């Protein structure tokens, strides 16, 4: 089975060889998470590792481009075009208050019972410290700070 990175037909821009090993590692972890046994887990819990790896891969590319300026704009756009990073999630990270957003489902009010944001978007200071609260969508334990 070939990796998704190998199936991209367009020639990558300069600097690709620097990030390719890390993206290959994310791809390997994603394949493991997809094939992992779901025995004893709720349906939503089986998806949590996939959401986590997707977030980590997008955050890696975001940090390289916006925080460390380690990759060029053509390489960044190449990663977005080939869906190696989530462009809509990155767009949210650039907005104030969403810098640590775990996934887009957590801010969609249509996915909640009462038409509000997910519980992980409530600041930890406003929650009961004795309870561990996990997002039903992605397993996040609080991404609002």
UniProtKB/TrEMBL annotation:
The keyword Nucleus applies. GO terms for biological process: mRNA splicing, via spliceosome. Keywords: Nucleus. Its main location: nucleus. GO terms for cellular component: spliceosomal complex. It holds the Pfam family BUD31. InterPro entries: BUD31, BUD31/G10-rel_CS. Belongs to the BUD31 (G10) family. This is Protein BUD31 homolog. It comes from Plectus sambesii. The lineage of its organism: Eukaryota, Metazoa, Ecdysozoa, Nematoda, Chromadorea.
């Amino acid at each position: 089975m070939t990796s998704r990175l190998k199936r991209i037909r367009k020639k990558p821009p300069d600097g690709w060889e620097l990030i390719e090993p890390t993206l290959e590692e994310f791809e390997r972890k994603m394949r493991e998470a997809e094939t992992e046994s779901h025995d004893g887990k709720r349906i939503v819990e089986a998806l949590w590792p996939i959401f986590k790896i997707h977030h980590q891969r997008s955050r890696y590319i975001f940090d390289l481009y916006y925080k460390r300026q380690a990759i060029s704009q053509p390489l960044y756009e190449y990663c977005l075009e080939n869906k190696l990073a989530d462009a809509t999630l990155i767009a949210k990270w650039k907005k104030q208050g969403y810098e640590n957003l775990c996934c887009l489902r957590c801010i969609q009010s249509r996915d909640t019972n009462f038409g509000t944001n997910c519980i992980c978007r409530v600041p930890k200071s406003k929650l009961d410290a004795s309870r561990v609260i996990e997002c039903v969508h992605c397993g996040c334990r609080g991404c609002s700070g």
